[in-house]
Design goal:
With 239 residues, the protein is an alpha/beta fold. 26% of the residues lie in helices and 28% in strands. The longest helix has 18 residues, at 78-95.
């Protein structure tokens, strides 16, 4: 892979996510953002590529003009993560575009900061089987930073690692399914407008990851299932 050597502020970044019930794509180019999002369970494989085509068309550029592709690496549904990873692989492979995987939980936390300016966020996705995907975040220079580790956990086993004396904002389907989580401390409020990850919120995180050297070759795609019951398989011939 040919390494890109660009000012991060000049990058053309394409992002896509299908890890949950939502399906989204976004594009940042020359200071402008173009985005598409729909809540379409079981339609991700049919919808994500037209969304990518749409944002590229809106910006009047081609895939070859993209410097970096950010993809939702999970956690989320196994099928959704696989679709996102496969689509990213297909897009990046032909054009030799570097990729960067971003957390669905971190993406939601970033959306809360972008919309509310919250400094502490807890994100939870309903993982079914009586569990949630769980992550806690604080903000450093306007970007979501993970506290501790992302995990899959039963709601009644959750503990807070944030400062409970300061406001905490919650987001994600986990709080709809298990509203008792909002009672962990009296300082929690729910951001009802942030239920799922949105590729638009991945753009600033992708730029940060690029500056930190986290972009990789498409051969190093790394989906994160959290539950260690599945594995990612590369396309034939890409071992």
């Amino acid at each position: 892979m040919t390494e890109i050597q660009k000012n991060p502020d000049e990058l053309t970044i394409l992002s896509l996510d299908t890890c949950t019930e939502s399906c989204s794509a976004a594009l940042s180019v020359k200071g402008k953002v173009f985005s598409e999002l729909a809540i379409v369970p079981r339609e991700h494989s049919q919808r994500i590529l037209p969304m990518v085509d749409s944002v590229l068309s809106q910006a009047n550029i081609q895939l070859a003009d993209v410097d970096l592709i950010a993809y939702g690496r999970g956690p989320g549904s196994f099928t959704g993560i696989r679709i996102c990873t496969s689509m990213t692989q297909g897009l990046a492979l032909g054009q030799d575009i570097p990729v960067i995987g971003l957390s669905a939980l971190q993406t939601m936390a970033q959306a809360v900061f972008d919309s509310q300016g919250a400094m502490q966020v807890i994100a939870a996705i309903d993982a079914r089987m009586g569990e949630i995907y769980w992550g806690q975040f604080v903000f450093d220079n306007g970007l979501a930073k993970l506290v501790g580790a992302e995990t899959v956990i039963a709601p009644d086993l959750v503990t807070l690692e944030l400062n409970t004396e300061l406001p905490i904002v919650a987001c994600g389907t986990g709080f709809e399914t298990y509203p008792q989580l909002l009672e962990l401390t009296g300082s929690i409020t729910l951001a009802k407008e942030v239920t799922f990850p949105d590729a638009k919120s991945m753009l600033s995180l992708a730029k940060q990851g690029y500056t930190q050297g986290l972009a990789t070759s498409v051969d190093d795609l790394a989906p994160v299932y959290v539950r260690d019951t599945v594995t990612w398989k590369k396309l034939p011939g890409r071992e």
